[in-house]
Amino acid sequence: MRAVLATDLSDAIETAIESRTCLECLQRYGIDEIDLVTVTSPNVTAGMPGSDIGGRTKRGLERQRGKLEAEGFGVRTHVMRGTPHRRINGLAERIDADLLIVGSRGQSPLEQRFIGGTARNVARTAARPLLVQRILEHGEEDHEVAAEHLFQRILYATDFSENAERAFEQFDHLETAAQEVTLLHVAPPGRRANGDPDAVSDAEARLGELADQLEERGIETRVVVREGAAVEEILAAEQQFQPTSVLMGSRGRSRMRRLLLGSVSEEVTARADCNVLLVPPAGSR
């Protein structure tokens, strides 16, 4: 399987590439080839007098390539000019990538966390599964990945939409990497009070069917149904169960074509402490 890994050649991305555990998790997912891509601004001219931008970029890519190859990956490098998310997504489509990986640098505590513009724009437009890898900043030169075991503990959030079902298919790749999975559904508040007492029971039953499938694969599974605002309850579940990644579809039941990234998945991606694995709708390619 093939992944596109976006790099800005920063120390933050270097930290992720240097994590042997992270790379081993990608291999357990099935990735054995990586296309390492960096996108430069079209306004920057590598040949400007006194400038060594082109040379620094090439040396940085070769350094990162060497680290990935040392861990057993086949690596291709790409230097592109233009709008980052368009070039990254365009490359993924051209090579028929199985996974996109972008780093998202953030700060602690939670309310100061942010998702970078490139990561956000890739997430909004990606037609391939996307791993947003959280990289924590403790200063300009001090970085660490939020969770080295990328897929060890998964929080799968579902609204039972078609796209959420497609996200569940990721467990075909995560089977050997995931040890613990929390299956979460958030029901609108007041379902019981509004005369729908069976809504939560029905959700638990549907999650139970999914849990049976995972437990047959040897994955420890729990079922959780919450009532309330979807984003807040997903983030609360993240704090409670401490997953290494949240898995969800990038669009729920909304039919608005312009919303390639639904408001729930966008907010969760922006605010979660851990990594986020987003799966786009089937027709987005």
Automatic annotation (TrEMBL):
Residues annotated as domain UspA: 4-132, 151-280
Domain of life where this protein originates: Archaea
Cross-referenced InterPro entries: Rossmann-like_a/b/a_fold, Universal_stress_UspA, UspA
A Pfam family: Usp
Similarity section: Belongs to the universal stress protein A family.
Listed name of the protein: Nucleotide-binding universal stress protein, UspA family
Native source organism of the sequence: Haloarchaeobius iranensis
